[in-house]
């Protein structure tokens, strides 16, 4: 079973540690703040209070034997750096660091981090993508040029069969699934009506509230009718 | 053209404002800290220093005329709340608030926010998904039961044509794209080798380093060979 150490129980570290534990990963959660350690100890395999810049303390908890070490010590950059260097010395196979800025991220990479996460910047870009394309419920980049998008079915597709629209030939995009909202439960208050997801067949007919999930090159996706 | 106000130029707000402006949205960026306003003014249509809890100041900048207002004032919860209430009073059609915790998020929703973002928690869960499924480069839930996953091509598929593997018939999953790494540039140091993405054709043959991007019901995806 995979063993992952999460060092630094800020909001990122705590959410990560809990979700990992729920997915069946063996988690050791570390922070120098006893209160945070107490908060999480029922959710993970092991929660320990220690100063992560102390090599002996890390060894005493077998940090040299984990598969992945996530270092999410936020504001204390020096502690974050020192801990990363120690994890590298202890030959942890994969080290992930949470960085405050692009410059911090660059430094973590130079001292050997395998992956750097910048939650705020990544969220800012993610929300920007959603807002810049309001008819697209979501845009997930698969690479620099390809994305997965969710598009409310444009009027010009309503009532047409998928075969007749010819998305692959005409638009060079791949229709991956159709999300069709079901009747709302009584109160109409719930923010997300239940939807039925299906893998599209050629004879399926597109209905007005369908959401089409499509994959293709960004340039091709931009050609789709918006309305 | 859509007009979006971003109030609070922390890391989330700045990344959001810049990416929106790059996508052709008209952005007004607001902060009470002049230095941050100066930092972003070349990247957006309008950058203004003001206290967002001041109703007159907001009106003077036509915040009542924007399509979306994003309130990303972080640590000052009271200011964040007051600004949200003001935006609601000014009848801004869509209000997005950045929250520090689930409890803060709940409060924003109760006072009328249309969407609440928690970057650190969302990033924690996202990284947890990646780490919990190491053979899957990424798992993106499309609904409670359907996901998009990236799977390193299992050995049993190497050298076989897509048609012969019969993913749709045999596994009920839809192969959406294939990512094929290209030769690495000289130093081998770059963390993500260039990949060529292609929409699969029936006669394409799967190669050992291919990454298959698949969509299907979670139960079907779990049936795929892992190795
Ligand atoms: N030397 C250290 N050893 C162990 N834990 C540490 C050390 N220094 C700081 N920490 C812990 O790191 C945690 C995260 O730090 P902090 O809250 O500054 O980060 P943050 O980036 O604001 O977090 P987030 O944004 O994820 O909420 C804190 O709980 C803190 O106690
Ligand atoms: N009343 C106010 N009017 C306008 N701006 C404000 C007000 N109060 C705070 N701000 C601004 O909000 C910005 C973001 O706040 P802060 O840096 O505390 O958030 P944060 O959540 O830590 O940001 P991030 O995590 O996105 O970096 C700051 O630049 C601050 O100047």
Describe this structure in words.
Two copies of one chain form a homodimer. In chain A, the strands form two sheets. In chain A, strands 3-2-1-4-5-6 form a six-stranded parallel β-sheet, with helices on both faces. The first copy, chain A, has a five-stranded antiparallel β-sheet with strand order 7-8-11-9-10. Chain A has two domains: 3-122, Rossmann fold (3-Layer(aba) Sandwich), CATH 3.40.50; 134-222, Regulator of K+ conductance, C-terminal domain (Alpha-Beta Plaits, 2-Layer Sandwich). Chain A has helices at residues 11-22, 34-40, 55-60, 77-89, 102-110, 119-132, 162-165, 167-171, 218-222, and strands at 3-7, 26-31, 46-49, 68-71, 94-98, 115-117, 136-141, 146-152, 173-181, 195-198, 211-217. With 227 residues, the first copy, chain A, is of the alpha/beta class. In chain A, strand 5, helix 5 and strand 6 form a beta-alpha-beta unit. The longest helix of chain A is centred in the middle third of the chain and has 14 residues, at 119-132. The model of chain A is unreliable at 186-192 (pLDDT under 50). Chain A contains nine helices and eleven strands. At the A-B interface, helix 1, helix 6, strand 9 and strand 11 of A face helix 1, helix 6, strand 9 and strand 11 of B. The complex binds adenosine-5'-triphosphate (ATP) (2 copies). One adenosine-5'-triphosphate is lined by residues 7-13, 31-33, 36, 51-53, 72-76, 79 of chain B.
């Amino acid at each position: 079973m995979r063993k992952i150490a999460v060092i630094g129980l800020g909001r990122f570290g705590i959410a990560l540690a809990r979700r990992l534990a729920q997915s069946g990963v063996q988690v050791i959660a570390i922070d120098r703040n006893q209160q945070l350690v107490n908060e999480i100890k029922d959710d993970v395999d092991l929660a320990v209070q220690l100063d992560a810049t102390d090599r002996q303390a890390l060894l005493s908890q077998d940090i040299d034997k984990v598969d992945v070490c996530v270092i999410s010590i936020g504001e204390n950059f020096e502690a974050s750096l020192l801990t990363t260097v120690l994890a590298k010395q202890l030959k942890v196979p994969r080290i992930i660091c949470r960085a405050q800025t692009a410059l911090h991220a660059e430094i973590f990479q130079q001292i050997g981090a395998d992956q750097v996460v910048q939650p705020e910047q990544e969220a800012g870009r993610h929300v920007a993508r959603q807002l810049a394309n309001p008819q697209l419920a979501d845009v997930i980049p698969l690479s620099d040029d390809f994305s997965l998008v969710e598009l409310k079915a444009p009027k010009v597709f309503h009532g047409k069969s998928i075969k007749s629209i010819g998305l692959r030939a005409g638009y060079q995009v791949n229709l991956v699934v159709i999300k069709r909202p079901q009747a709302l439960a009584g109160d109409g208050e719930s923010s997300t009506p239940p939807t039925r997801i299906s893998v599209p067949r050629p004879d399926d007919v597109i209905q007005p509230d369908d959401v089409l999930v499509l994959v293709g090159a960004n340039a091709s996706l931009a050609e789709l009718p918006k309305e």
